[in-house]
Amino acid sequence: MTRKQRRLALVSTGVGILGFAIGLILWSFSGSIRFFNSPTDLVETHVAPGTPVRLGGLVAVGTLVKGADLNVRFEVTDGNRAVPVIYHGIVPDLLRDGQGVVVDGTLDPSGTFKADRVLAKHDERYMPREVADALKKQGHWVEDRSAKAGATTGAKP
Amino acid sequence: MIPELGHYALVLALAIALVQSVVPLYGARIRDTVLMRVAEPTALAQFVLVAISFAALVSCYVTSDFSVATVFENSHSTMPLIYKFTSVWGNHEGSMLLWVLILAVFGALVAAFGGNIPATLKATVLSVQSWIAAAFYVFILATSNPFLRLSPAPFEGRDLNPILQDFGLAVHPPMLYLGYVGFSISFSFAIAALIEGRIDAAWARWVRPWTLIAWICLTLGIAMGSYWAYYTLGWGGWWYWDPVENASFMPWLAGTALLHSALVMEKREALKIWTILLSILTFSLSLIGTFLVRSGVLTSVHAFASDPMRGIFILVILVLFIGGGLSLYAWRAPLLKQGGLFAPISREGALVLNNLFLTTACATVFVGTLYPLALEALTGAKISVGAPFFNATFGPLFVPLLVAVPFGPLLAWKRGDLKGVTQRLAAAFVLALFGIAAVCVAEGRPVIAAFGIGLATFVIAGAITDIVERTGLWRAPFPTTLRRAIGLPRSAWGAAFAHIGLGVTLLGVVGETQWGAEQIVSLRQGDKVSLRHYDFTFDGTSTRNGPNYRELAVKFTVRRNGEPIGIMEPSKRTFPARDMSTTEAALMTRGFSQIYASLGEVTPDGAIAVRLYHKPLVLLIWFGCVVMAMGGALSLSDRRLRVGAPKPARSRAAIQPAE
Predict the structure, then answer these.
(1) Is this structure's pTM higher than 0.95?
(2) B462 SS3 class
(3) Across the interface, do A24 and B397 touch by the CB < 8 Å criterion?
(4) Type and span of the H or E element at B566
């Protein structure tokens, strides 16, 4: 092999692997990306049932029902719209009324969100950033919430 | 008084770092020995000063001095001593101080033990190292001062985040930082080589031990983090493709590529420019990792604080070092002379293939991790890229790499004989087929599991074949074999061990993902539940009081075929100081497999939600990582690195060392 052929072999292998990787990335992106939606987005943009999405908002006060056999239902709201969510399994301890929550799952034709994952942070002061942004957009963001968290950093007597 | 002392020491370290970043570099340009030799005492002084600063912070934590803001925020007087100590770096400020401490340690080590490095290169390396140090001292002093005081001083602290109150915190961050920061040395060497415009095989030999140390620590750090997440989060997962995990995995992939390409450079003087680029990229990825984790762009358990000022500051450091490094590379790399030629089928060719796969795999992880951030910044759309993406891209890229692993060490340098190597690997190949068949017969489905086991067997058997071939086992009389085995370079043993470790980890991954079983149930006292061959009986609950928490524990008796084999006691701890709770999973080890039990919450009707998992071969995942790190340590003890002698040993002509 001449020097030129060797270089060609090297470069073509490199380009081949890179092309393979790019192909893989594009192919997987089409199937495994979830868009973040607030309940308003979800209701008003008519996301097709069965599309995997991520939904974030607050647990609507008084809607959290932990039924028998680990079936959980609650509503996620951004103050404007609310979406009913059902989930089977163990939910995080901090899934409480009024708390910020992020759920992954799909919308079924009846408008109920079937969650396959429920995320709530293990910290009472935590608010998922996407949820905070969505609440701000709907004008339901209470600046107090962060102010209160900030205040507790002060010295206790 | 002590916090002020620590703060003052850090300011002094900055002043010295500024001197060190200019004077030795200038000395190297004008070939002034006196100016160049300034680097050594300054590097040692930086280490002493940062150590004083760190010791001051440690003493504040250990004595629970709540007048210091970070101690108040992250400690509690009732915490056990070990957690008081580890909570030093269980927060943003302290962890950055640990970062610069390790940076200073590495700088001092180069200054103290780099005696065989040419004076100009050493001076330049230490100067570049000091640029990084200076940037991070400024960052700490300007935005994250750990010694800030509160007045009046509070009586009690706010406790460390309970999830972090674990032995894992004592190991995971320091190991990870040793890895991240260790790559700064290869970065500094690369920048110094570009500044000098000269690079040779000896360069690769000087860089290798530092890269190896960093790689070993990063391997162990990632493994420890994975095991910690596994037992502490209560979900039984060991890898989530979470951005913060990817942040540590990307430098590992690039660093592994760097280790292999530096070999080609050392042995054959080829791939020089590529190796320089990899050195820059590896440390850049470490910096990006620090940025992702510390800036608050990601919300996770690792994002201790999200002060936008800090994020911007780290971003500036990032742009300066990565942008500067790559610009210097673009400008100076063409000056470096290309070296040795090789045929595509050769050890070099195999190592190039290794590098191509590792770097593209790293690139896919990079895309998956940063695409959501880029998309949000550009269009405002928020997306999440989950595990399916990474499995679908990373897997197909890693499988051909794993297939190629056994071939590499058996191929000769310069021009290899693929057919001969394939023949020598015949035994490994037969073993792999046997493994596939055995799994198919024993377990049936899924087919992918059988192939995974086959691939892992091939990697392990291939690495053993390499050692067998080198020592002439079964062909030569046993004493000869033994003598050859002892005479074999440690790096050859190291390579074999590292590759065996890779195979072992793969076994664990296949076992856990393909044959794992889980059961989520809600149970009351006296209830029975079974999972695989195991039966669990809910014997009862108990409550206990710990030093700074209350605990609810559930006792299970585990039976296999009716025979009791042990008791599992998962529990849930509530920490009043932060009104938080943690899940303490119970683990029962059976061979390399584990049974995993963790508690959910108590339902209003008095039942308790329980997660039970059977995790076959799961321990092999981390055990393999430890074997890999052992391989790295063996390689590190290789004679040619220990004495740093450019002269090859006499036996080298007969036996080619391999990695």
Answers:
(1) no
(2) helix
(3) yes
(4) strand B563-568
Burial class (CB in 10 A: 0-12, 13-18, 19+), B331: exposed
CB–CB contact A90 B611 (8 Å) = yes
Distance CA B71, CA B76 (A): 8
Print the SS3 string covering A74-137: EEEECCCCEEEEEEECCCCCCCCCCCEEEEEEEECCCCCEEEEEEECCCCCCCCCHHHHHHHHH
Poorest-pLDDT segment among A42-46, B48-52, B301-305, B637-641: B301-305
Kindly state the helix (H) or strand (E) to which residue B71 belongs, with its residue range.
helix B69-74
Query: Closest approach of chain B CAs to the CA of A130, in angstroms?
Result: 8
| Digit-coded pLDDT (tens) for B371-400 | 888 887 788 777 888 788 998 999 899 999
Contact A75, A60 (CB under 8 A): yes
Instruction: Locate B303 and state its tokens.
Output: 């994002």
DSSP β-bridge partners for residue A73: A65, A86
Q: Is B326 within 8 Å of B191 (Cβ atoms)?
A: no
- Which tokens in the block code for residue B506? 């793969």
Q: Kindly report the CA angle at B458 between B476 and B209, in degrees rounded to 5?
A: 80
Output the CA angle B29-B33-B38, nearest 5 degrees.
Answer: 90
Q: Which residues of chain A from 3 to 62 reach within 8 Å of chain B, CB to CB?
A: 3, 6, 9-10, 13-14, 17-18, 20-21, 24-25, 27-29, 31-36, 54
Within 13 A of B269's CA, how many CA atoms are on the CB side? 11
pLDDT score at A148:
33
Cis amide leading into B576 (omega within 30): no
Does residue B592 contact residue B619 with C-beta atoms inside 8 Å?
A: yes
Contact B356, B350 (CB under 8 A): no
Report the DSSP beta bridge partners of residue B558. B536, B566
Cβ <8 Å between A70 and B344: no
Structure confidence by residue, pLDDT tens digits, A69-127: 778 889 988 888 888 999 988 877 667 777 778 888 888 888 889 988 887 654 444 45
Type of residue found at B469: E
Residue B579's φ and ψ, nearest 5 degrees, are 50, 50
CA B541 to chain centroid, in Å, comes to 39
Residues B381, B385, B388, B392: is their CA dihedral positive or negative?
positive
In chain B, which residues have their Cβ closer than 8 Å to the Cβ of A128?
299
Residue B90 near residue B161, CB atoms below 8 Å: yes
Q: List the Cα angle B65/B173/B588 in 5-degree steps.
A: 105
Give, in order, the Cα–Cα distances in Å from B657 to each of B62, B172, B630, B635, B640: 49, 33, 18, 11, 11
What is the per-residue pLDDT across B415-465, written as a single tens digit (0 to 9) for each?
Answer: 888 888 888 898 899 999 998 888 888 877 778 889 999 999 999 999 999
Burial B58-97 (b: 16+ CB within 10 A, else e): bebbeebbbbbbbbbbbbbeebeeebbbbbbbbbbbbbbb
* pLDDT for B226: 93
Distance from B118 to chain A by nearest Cα, in Å? 33
